[in-house]
Amino acid sequence: MDKTLQRSIDDAAQQVAAAESVAALTGAGVSAESGIPTFRDCGGLWEDFRVQDVATPEAFQRNPRLVWKFYNARRTNLADVRPNPAHFALAEWATLVSDFHVITQNVDRLHHAAGSRHVIELHGDLWSVRCDRCCEVFDRTRESLAEMPECDRCGRLVRPNVVWFGEELATDVWAAASAAARRCECMLVVGTSAVVHPAAGLASMARDAGADVVEINLEETPARSIANLSLYGPAGVLLPQLVARVRAIRFGDAS
Ligand code: OAD
User: Fold this and answer.
1) Which residues are catalytic?
2) Atom of ligand 1 nearest to the CA of 51
3) What separation in Å is there between the alpha carbon of 32 and the centre of ligand 1?
4) Do residues 38 and 28 touch, judged by C-beta distance below 8 A?
5) pTM
6) Ligand 1 centroid vs 253 CA: distance in angstroms?
7) How many Å apart are CA 188 and CA 244, to the nearest integer?
């Protein structure tokens, strides 16, 4: 690894190692090295699909079959996907401090698969489905769904249990995320373009409450303007190194 980047990782570790309360705001970039396409990068999902065709309540009303085709394909792609070193590094960090929350915009459940326990899913998850009539959420993890899946209870067409554009985040989920952001002494902003609100606003919320903000991304994002430190490179490379340094500083070894 480039020496300047190594030094930046060491500096970041020195700055945040004492934090007992840490939150990681993650986006699609954290799962990119697992083989899941991001949204806005070259080759990203929003290059091939229009948001208004597949990710709004109006789209679902207009053409549920198309929306389900899009989500069923994403579920299928997820079936063989495994967490990568970035997910595992965040799960490991949680073992080093007393309060660690992952606040994710991702719907792939890979943080859970890597062993993270306190995961706040801002945008829902791809594996469950929801009935708008009886408000039930059904876990359909790894099941292959019908083209137009129906509610077990009332027979109505169910929808993916994700937040679409134009929809509010669930109140309890947002309350948990903003509490974690205000409470943390360090917020890692990892693999997100930091342009989708309200999620992106959590980084400023943390900063305003006095946290150190560390941006980790392949490239500069709007989070840079509020970050104390920015590390540029693949999350699956940077995060394991950062966690190893934090562990070494906290416990005096690098094991
Ligand atoms: P984006 O696709 O907007 O941004 C992905 C970010 O990850 C970019 O800033 C990339 O530079 C960065 N990136 C890519 N590979 C990386 C790697 N290996 N290591 C580190 N960084 C990497 O994805 P999000 O910010 O997650 O919402 O998008 C936010 C929301 O917009 C999503 O949750 C989704 C989308 O529309 C909904 O569907 C409601």
Assistant:
1) 123
2) 36
3) 9
4) yes
5) 0.96
6) 33
7) 15
pLDDT in tens, 59-89: 999 999 999 999 999 999 998 999 999 999 9
Looking only at the bridges linking them, the beta strands covering 124-130 and 137-139 are: antiparallel
Residue 207 has, within 13 A of its CA and on its CB side, a CA count of: 18
- Exposure string for 99-132, b = 16+ CB within 10 A, e = fewer: ebbbbbbbbbbbbbebebeebbbbbbbbbbbbbe
Distance between CA atoms of 245 and 74, rounded to whole angstroms?
35
- What's the pLDDT tens digit per position in 99-153? 999 999 999 999 999 999 999 999 999 999 999 899 899 999 999 999 999 999 9
Between CA 85 and CA 90 the distance in angstroms is 9
Structure tokens at 77: 């792609």
Ligand 1 pocket residue status of 57, Cβ below 6 Å: no
Contact 124 CB / ligand 1 (< 6 Å): no
The CA dihedral of 200, 112, 39, 53, to the nearest 10 degrees, is -100
